């Protein structure tokens, strides 16, 4: 007797330090498709998961920021290659989230192309934003951009293109990050892509769950250096920005809603860069 | 040691009025707050009665700045703004001796520093940003080449800037704030520090001499409450603050819900790292300049000396002999190295933290030196046997107090240097080029001085990492704080 093969389903977990743990809280939440059909039980991350993810991001920062820009660019391009291999899966997940077929395909294409675009910035942003400074004295003086550190990211609703558009610019320059994803399916599949792209564990950590629950912990965490509030509704963003003042985090919260399909410019790269100026005397 | 005869700079060159009003819309007007006195910290004599801006005065100043922005300044071609700034730079040069003497009288800093460091840098800053005013389209701040808002056209100014500055470099901090703001097309309301308002008020007169349109620059005096009212004013689009990290935190919190742009230049606890192969004589001068320049009232002061263990003894011996030659006293004496502490409150803070340093177990040393009987003075002070956990190793003292720690390996030096919530500046002294670059890469600080210290230039971006604030002042980078990008 022929029976239809029973699919092997994927367990959607969190992505912390290069591994896929469940939430330490043991909590999960149902993800349903646009028609209400059950898709998965995604992990619902907790405050402690945020802290574990920040610790992993901090641990990864020295090594990742110390890589050569060329190497970071190579790894980012590898991420795009892996995304390309998973095109079908991403399209299916976006469709399950409610996108039409054409729209889902367009978004996946744009997301892969966006990642390639940012990959190329790895070894160019310092040329564009750095400078040799003509000071009035016998000194060699130059300024270079350096990554800010650990970036907390509240990802926007745009499940894949928006997610890619906030993660890639933060990490390509050498930051590490903790992302609170809006939609679990594409986010965790992206995590699988990252896990197989030679990206060191801990550089990107992805949490799924309730943004309003998790974002404030990220905003008030004293070992987070910057926060991107792209996906935080106004009131949540305001309270997060207030909490971020405690250790003077860099806060990125564009006033207007972002069109993720538009040319992104370099603003998201420079938002999480510090400028270091070095002086040395000239003489014999 | 040589004896030095007194060589006082004449104070006849300055004409301090008995009282000063607020400079709003091109005129001096009365304030509605309770006026206060600015005193000479070297003698405690009252210099002038200063008006205090109450909320309605702040409102008036912001209104004047808004009017000037809408009616005149934002529409003026860059080349015209440039010419105003060039004029201001020239007038500062013409009046630089007067301004230097006034700065030393009001602040307490040695005339040698106000004359040779502050004033030349003030004029240079206005010259530098004057030149940017008509070149903003070349500064690389378009959002993207295809973005209509920025494509090809000049990037837009932000609007009205509310600026609050500290007392350690009164006129220089004014220049760092006002020059880029005006070059980019903003108008400003600036509040100088309560204890050092006089050079900012003299600058108001310079604006009049330059025929700067009324309202483009407004100077309001007062204490913390005036600053808070300015920062919180709903019609201020951009807030720029230089001062303590604690106040910076409050400001960041207060603007969090407003959408105002913010740049902060806050505290520091810089490590000055001396390797065993460093040119010791030069390093000694760098250490002295790093911590005793401007009485240590410097946010980027090299207040933590990290010495490689193998040279610690020799270096400390030489440092102590050098410290014994520092001359403390009359700020207007051209031979003075260390002037007066700016205020009684600051002196109290320095004393308190130094006493805590002793109590926590560090060894305190100062050269024998006679301090004047009137005024606020603190002898240059060195602490050895300092642990990283001591408050004198963690907190910004903002005075002539140096904490000495030691290290064995470069990795340990980096670890200790970065072991602070601050990240404004750092110093490194070694003859080995590759080690300088290795250290410079790893020090988490916005400015790294290698085989030098406390150097500033309008072309060189300055600003902090971590809790030392965000945004840069100086250079092309300094424009970003005042453009809508």
Please explain how this structure is put together:
The complex is a heterodimer of chains A (284) and B (485). By secondary structure, chain A is α/β, with parallel strands linked by helices. Chain A has a single domain, classed as Aldehyde Dehydrogenase, Chain A, domain 1. Chain A is built from 10 helices and 10 strands. In chain A, α6 links the parallel β5 (150-154) and β6 (176-180). In chain A, α1 (47-66) crosses α8. Chain A is globular and about 85 Å long. The N and C termini of chain A lie far apart (91 Å). The mean pLDDT of chain A is 96. In chain B, the strands form 4 sheets. Chain B has a 7-stranded mixed sheet with strand order 13-14-15-12-11-16-17, with helices on both faces. The model of chain B has no long low-confidence stretch (mean pLDDT 96). Chain B has helices spanning 55-71, 78-94, 96-107, 111-132, 170-183, 198-209, 224-232, 245-255, 280-292, 309-324, 344-359, 391-394, 410-417, 433-442, and strands spanning 19-20, 22-24, 27-29, 36-39, 46-50, 160-164, 187-191, 217-219, 238-242, 261-265, 271-274, 304-308, 363-365, 381-384, 401-407, 425-429, 447-450, 469-470. The longest helix of chain B has 22 residues, at 111-132. In chain B, β16, α14 and β17 form a beta-alpha-beta unit. The radius of gyration of chain B is 22 Å and the shape is globular. Chain B folds into 2 domains: 19-266 and 465-482, Aldehyde Dehydrogenase, Chain A, domain 1, CATH 3.40.605.10; 271-450, 3-Layer(aba) Sandwich (Aldehyde Dehydrogenase, Chain A, domain 2). Chain B is of the alpha/beta class and 485 residues long. At the A-B interface, β4, α9 and β10 of A face α8, β17 and β18 of B.
């Amino acid at each position: 007797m022929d029976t239809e093969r029973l699919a092997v389903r994927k367990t959607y977990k969190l992505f912390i330090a290069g591994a896929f743990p469940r939430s330490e809280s043991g909590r999960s939440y149902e993800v349903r498709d646009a028609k209400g059909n059950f898709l998965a039980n995604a992990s619902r991350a907790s405050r402690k998961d945020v802290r574990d993810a920040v610790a992993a991001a901090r641990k990864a920062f020295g090594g990742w920021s110390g890589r050569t820009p060329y190497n970071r660019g190579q790894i980012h391009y590898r991420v795009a290659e892996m995304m390309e291999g998973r095109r079908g899966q991403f399209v299916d997940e976006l469709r399950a989230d409610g996108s039409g077929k054409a729209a889902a395909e367009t978004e996946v294409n744009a997301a892969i192309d966006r990642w390639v675009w940012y990959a190329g910035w790895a070894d160019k942003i310092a040329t564009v934003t750095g400078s040799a400074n003509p000071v009035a004295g016998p000194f060699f003086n130059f300024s270079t951009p350096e990554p800010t550190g650990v970036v907390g990211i509240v990802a926007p609703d745009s499940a894949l293109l928006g997610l890619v558009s906030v993660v890639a610019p933060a990490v390509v320059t050498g930051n590490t990050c903790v992302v609170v994803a809006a939609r679990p399916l594409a986010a965790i599949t992206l995590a699988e892509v990252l896990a197989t792209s030679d990206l060191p564990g801990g550089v990107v950590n992805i949490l799924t769950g309730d943004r309003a629950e998790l974002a404030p912990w990220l905003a008030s965490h004293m070992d987070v250096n910057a926060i991107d509030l792209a996906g935080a509704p106004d009131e949540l963003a305001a309270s997060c920005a207030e909490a971020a003042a405690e250790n003077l985090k860099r806060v990125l919260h564009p006033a207007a809603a972002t069109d993720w399909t538009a040319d992104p410019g370099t603003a998201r790269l420079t938002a999480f860069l510090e400028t270091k100026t070095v002086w040395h005397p000239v003489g014999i | 040691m040589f004896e030095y005869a007194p060589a006082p700079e004449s104070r006849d060159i300055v004409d301090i009025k008995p009282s000063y009003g607020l400079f709003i819309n091109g005129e001096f007007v009365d304030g509605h707050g309770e006026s206060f006195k600015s005193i000479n910290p070297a003698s405690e004599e009252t210099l002038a009665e200063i008006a205090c801006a109450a909320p309605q005065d702040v409102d008036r100043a912001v209104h004047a700045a808004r009017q000037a922005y809408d009616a005149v300044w934002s529409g003026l071609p860059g080349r015209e703004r440039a010419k105003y700034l060039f004029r201001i730079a020239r007038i500062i040069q013409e009046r630089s001796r007067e301004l230097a003497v006034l700065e030393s009288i009001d602040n307490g800093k040695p005339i040698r520093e106000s004359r040779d460091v502050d004033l030349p840098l003030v004029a240079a800053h206005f010259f530098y940003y004057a030149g940017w005013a008509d070149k903003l389209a070349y500064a690389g701040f378009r959002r993207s080449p295809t973005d209509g808002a920025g494509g090809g056209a000049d990037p837009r100014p932000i609007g009205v800037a509310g600026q609050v500055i500290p007392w350690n470099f009164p006129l220089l901090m004014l220049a760092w704030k006002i020059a880029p703001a005006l070059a980019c097309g903003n108008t400003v309301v600036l509040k100088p520090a309560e204890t050092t308002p006089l050079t900012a008020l003299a600058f108001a007169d310079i604006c009049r001499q330059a025929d700067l349109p009324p309202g483009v620059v407004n100077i309001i005096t007062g204490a913390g409450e005036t600053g808070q009212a300015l920062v919180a004013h709903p019609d201020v689009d951009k807030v720029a603050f230089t001062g303590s990290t604690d106040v910076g935190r409050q400001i960041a919190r207060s603007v969090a819900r407003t959408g105002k742009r913010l740049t902060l230049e806050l505290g520091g606890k810089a490590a000055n790292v001396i390797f065993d192969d460093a040119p010791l004589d030069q390093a000694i001068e760098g250490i002295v300049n790093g911590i005793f320049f401007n009485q240590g009232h410097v946010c980027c002061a090299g207040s933590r000396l990290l010495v490689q263990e193998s040279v610690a003894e020799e270096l400390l011996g030489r440092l102590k002999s050098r410290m014994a030659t520092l001359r403390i006293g009359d700020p207007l004496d051209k031979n003075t190295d260390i002037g007066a502490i700016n205020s009684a409150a600051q002196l109290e803070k320095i004393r308190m933290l130094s006493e805590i340093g002793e109590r926590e177990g560090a060894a305190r040393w100062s050269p024998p030196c006679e301090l004047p009987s009137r005024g606020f003075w603190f002898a240059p002070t060195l602490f050895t046997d300092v642990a990283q956990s001591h408050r004198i190793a963690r907190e910004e003292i903002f005075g002539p107090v140096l904490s000495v720690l030691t290290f064995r390996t470069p990795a340990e030096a980096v670890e200790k240097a970065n072991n602070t919530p601050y990240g404004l500046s750092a110093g490194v002294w070694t003859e080995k080029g590759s080690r300088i670059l290795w250290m410079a890469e790893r020090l988490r600080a916005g400015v790294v001085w290698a085989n030098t210290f406390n150097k500033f230039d309008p072309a060189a971006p300055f600003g902090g990492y971590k809790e030392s604030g965000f945004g840069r002042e100086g250079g092309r980078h300094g424009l970003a704080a005042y453009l809508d990008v």
